[in-house]
Amino acid sequence: MDATSTRGLPALVDGCARVSVAAEPLDRSTAERLAKLLKAVADPARLQLLSIIHGAPGGEVCVCDLVEPLGLSQPTVSHHLKVLTDAGLLSRERRGTWAYFSVVPEGWQALRALFA
């Protein structure tokens, strides 16, 4: 089967995502960074959050606007946002009582590069 890709998803070969990490073996430091990145996105809610924030007009979303689309409690959404922020995929800016999140371009590119 040929590799296909739709809506920014990794190309599929025989129904499985085609992941290329490197032509040479990874060193320990790189492997640990990639593992942290993969752990951060290994949750459906986090993938939804990344998708919502990445596609948001203006490129940022208030935490207050993320609870309803996910159908999760505010503390749970905040936990997932923290994991994504700690992994370098999101940045957080506090404005008064609200926090606004945006995708970190370098983190997004690192994630995309895993599936190139």
Task: Supply database-style keywords.
116 residues, alpha+beta, three-stranded antiparallel β-sheet, 5 helices, 45% helix, disordered N terminus
Give a description of the structure.
There is one protein chain. The chain is of the alpha+beta class and 116 residues long. It is built from five helices and five strands, in the order ββααβααββα. Strands 3-5-4 form a three-stranded antiparallel β-sheet. A hairpin with a 2-residue loop joins β1 and β2. α2 crosses α4. The longest helix is centred in the first third of the chain and has 14 residues.
Compact overview of the structure:
With 116 residues, the chain is of the alpha+beta class.
Mass-distribution shape: elongated
Question: Termini separation (Å)?
Answer: 17 Å
SSE ordering:
EEHHEHHEEH
Give me the side-by-side strand order of the main sheet. Answer: 3-5-4
Summing up helix and strand content along with how strands pair, one would put the structural category as: alpha+beta
Measured on Cα atoms, how large is the radius of gyration? 15 Å
Number of helices: 5
Biggest sheet character: 3 strands, antiparallel
Strand content: 15-25%
Mean pLDDT: 83
Question: Layout of SSEs?
Answer:
Blueprint lengths: L11 E2 L2 E2 L10 H14 L2 H11 L5 E3 L4 H4 L3 H13 L3 E6 L2 E6 L1 H10 L2
Antiparallel strand pairs: 1-2, 3-5, 4-5
Helix pairs in contact: 2-4
